[in-house]
Specification:
heterotrimer; A mainly alpha (260); B alpha/beta (272); C alpha/beta (154); B: 272 residues; alpha/beta; six-stranded mixed beta sheet; four-stranded antiparallel beta sheet; 10 strands; C: 154 residues; 2 domains; 2 helices; elongated; ABC_MlaD (chain C); Mce/MlaD (chain C); Outer membrane lipid asymmetry maintenance protein MlaD (chain C); transmembrane (chain C); transmembrane helix (chain C)
């Protein structure tokens, strides 16, 4: 019993310690952004590795998610004779929820894990330490550009996901199942509000981009510099990002759309 | 600052230094002096915290007690900006080379120049090629770090360490895991750079022969203390059993071959 | 830093397509594209019951959307629902004696205001009021009446 309490205490203490380190890390990273801005080359390189390299997985997933929504939505809505609302259903689910959330989960799996592994290996091979000895702050030079890139790429990826998903839904609904093209778009435009839906969706993806990039970079930076440590850190990135994204999604949804 | 506090000939002075990792004491009240323009070796068995000592000198770790002065400046009392300025004057060669894996040899050597100076690209090119030529790898400037052998990577890292013309270089185990040829090349390079560039060198190593061949002064560490010091000749003639065992590589001596264990026979017969 | 032109191009393509997707959603998917500027005038109508009508519900004539509901409030004295709608200025020839009814699009769809044009020579202008109104059909009431009729008819 006593041991159990001790373990609990120890876990709590180390969790708080980690949270503290993570907060300092984040503050340092954010101040480092001021050093990235005058050097856009650093940023372009990272936007390439987090954004461009995630482009394919995001667009293909978006297309399929949209097509599935079109198919499922049609089956349900046709029971009520409301096939014309298919556009609304596809667009609302993508723009409000699936676009930001699924693309954040894919981003965590594709770009987040890669960031953790990269930073963890740089730590394990003393590159970060070496940089420090060359009087270059590794957080400003290595972490901040990656953070900024993740933060910027995420809303773009989510928008791509939603846009392509809607096209996928249109392809299935209008192209294959015979929903009226005009009704599909008209109902969608009548119900999807720019501020309520699109802007809120973008805000969600900005928050997710911030959190996933932070988790991924911090786990890499905080990893135990061995191959096992880096592999564990990579796993933690994916698990913690997914958990944070889903929990935050609930909170943000409640704030934006709910009356809680 | 108080440059006069340290004699002109001393570049790094370490006094009353103590440092622990968890419960393990790595340094217990040690004193070291490193002379300007000389090659000083710090030797000792694996796990005596030699690398830790270099990180302490570089200000990456903070000591528990005691102070470290480099060129008269107390490393751990410096504000970050001054510490970074001091580090620009120190080079460090990591055991793995610590080359940045996402850029080629040329960009690695150019890295400190680009970060700390606003030199035009043509001048950077001249400097980089000069440094690479000094380590004999001018022809390899387009290779990526993963295309280099261990010895070549260390030489590139050395070129990078001297890119800003530092006053001192710290070598972390420069000879470990090298074949005889690249070992010879490194020994030659360290000696040559020290004389031609007027550097101060600190070598951390457990390779007795190679280190003794070029060092001007040697400190031998063990169990968190300095157990022997002197010129290579003095140490070779030392009557300390410990120093004798280390310098000659005897398997048994004051440092036992066996890790502390219960009695062998009892252990075998205990049947658990 | 050597950094390739291909990389720059791809990053440029990525950013451009992301922004294009945002614009696509703003204009094609949402109602931003059909937002009208201030080029509109307000018309007021009193309903006994405005049902599920909401701000931004469409206002239409003959199925063509001509504006949106801009506010719904309760008249404190008459306990009626006061609905204000903004109608695009280009539809400036709606007769004064037109009627407004609240209908539902489909069985479960959203509610909207439909305006039935009258025959007056005078046209609606800003702040004019529609007098002939018919309230929203509340499904429960209908069912209630239907049940009552059935019970009485027995």
């Amino acid at each position: 019993m006593l041991e159990l309490l001790q373990t609990l205490g120890k876990t709590t203490r180390s969790a708080f310690a980690k949270l503290g380190r993570g907060t300092f890390f984040l503050l340092h990273t954010l101040t480092g952004i001021s050093e990235v801005l005058p050097r856009p080359n650093l940023l372009v390189k990272q936007v390439y590795s987090v954004g461009v390299l995630s482009f394919l997985i995001i667009t293909i997933s978006g297309l399929f998610v949209g097509m599935v929504l079109g198919l499922q939505g049609f089956n349900i809505l046709s029971d009520f004779g409301a096939e014309e609302s298919l556009g609304v259903m596809v667009a609302a689910s993508l723009v409000r929820e699936l676009g930001p959330v699924v693309s954040a989960l894919l981003f965590a799996g594709r770009a987040g894990s890669a960031l953790t592994a990269e930073i963890g290996l740089m730590k394990a091979t003393e590159q970060l330490s070496g940089m420090e000895m060359m009087a270059v702050d590794p957080i400003n030079r290595i972490i901040s550009p990656r953070f900024l890139a993740g933060f910027l790429a995420m809303p773009l990826l989510a928008a791509l996901f939603s846009a392509i998903g809607i096209m996928g839904g249109h392809l299935v609904g209008v192209g294959m199942l015979g929903v009226d093209d005009g009704a599909f778009w008209a109902q969608m435009q009548a119900s999807i509000d720019f501020h309520e839906d699109i802007v809120n969706g973008v805000i969600k993806s900005v928050v997710f981009g911030f959190v996933v990039s932070w988790i991924a970079l911090f786990e890499g930076y905080d990893a135990i510099p061995t191959s096992e440590g880096v592999s564990r850190a990579t796993t933690r990135t994916v698990v913690n990002s997914a958990f944070s994204v889903l929990a935050l999604d609930f909170i943000l949804t409640a704030l934006m759309f709910g009356d809680i | 600052m108080a440059t006069s506090a340290s004699p002109e000939s001393t570049l790094v002075s370490i006094s009353n230094l103590s440092f622990s990792r968890g419960a393990r004491k790595i340094f217990d009240n040690i004193d070291l002096e490193i002379q300007r323009g000389k090659i000083t070796a710090i030797m000792g068995p694996s796990g005596t915290g030699k690398t830790t000592l270099l990180k302490l000198i570089g200000g990456q770790l903070a000591p528990e007690r005691g102070e470290i002065r480099v060129d008269g400046l107390n490393v751990h009392r410096l504000p970050t900006r001054d510490l970074y300025n001091l580090r620009k004057r120190m080079g460090m060669l990591f055991q793995s080379g610590a080359l940045l894996t996402d850029m080629n040899v040329y960009d690695n050597v150019a890295f400190p120049l680009r970060e700390h100076t606003h030199l035009p690209e043509s001048m950077i090119r001249t400097l980089v090629l000069m440094k690479l030529h000094a380590v004999g790898l001018r022809g390899a400037h387009r290779l990526m770090p993963n295309e280099l052998s261990g010895g070549m990577a260390r030489r590139v890292a050395l070129a990078r360490a001297i890119a800003l013309d530092p006053m001192m270089i710290m070598y972390d185990e420069p000879f470990t895991g090298q074949d005889p040829i690249s070992m010879g090349a490194l020994v030659h390079l360290i000696k040559a750079l020290n004389t031609t560039l007027g550097l101060t060198s600190i070598i951390v190593s457990h390779d007795v022969q190679e280190t003794a061949a070029i060092a001007d002064y040697i400190y031998v560490l063990s169990g968190g203390r300095v157990v022997g010091q002197g010129t290579p000749q003095q140490l070779a003639a030392s009557d300390s059993e410990w120093v004798e065992q280390f310098m000659n590589g005897y398997a048994d001596g004051p440092v036992h071959f066996h890790y502390p264990a219960p009695d062998y026979l009892d252990d075998l017969l205990s049947g658990k | 830093m050597q950094h390739s032109k291909t990389q720059d191009t791809l990053v440029g393509f990525f950013v451009a397509s992301g922004i294009a997707a945002l614009f696509y959603m703003a204009l094609q998917v949402s109602n931003l594209g059909s937002y009208t500027s201030d080029d509109s005038y307000t018309v007021i109508a009193h309903f006994q019951n405005s049902g599920g009508l909401k701000v931004k519900s469409p206002v239409s004539i003959a199925g063509v959307r001509i504006g949106r509901v801009s506010s719904i409030r309760l008249d404190r004295d008459s306990h009626e629902s006061v609905v204000e709608m903004r109608i695009e200025s280009k539809y400036n020839n709606i007769p004064m004696d037109s009627g407004a009814s609240i209908y539902t699009a489909g069985l479960l769809g959203e509610q909207y205001i439909s305006i039935d044009p009258g025959s007056s020579e005078e046209y609606l202008h800003d702040k004019s009021q529609l007098d002939i109104t018919s309230s929203a059909i509340v499904l429960e009431e209908m069912i209630g009446k239907f049940m009552l009729n059935k019970a009485e008819g027995k």
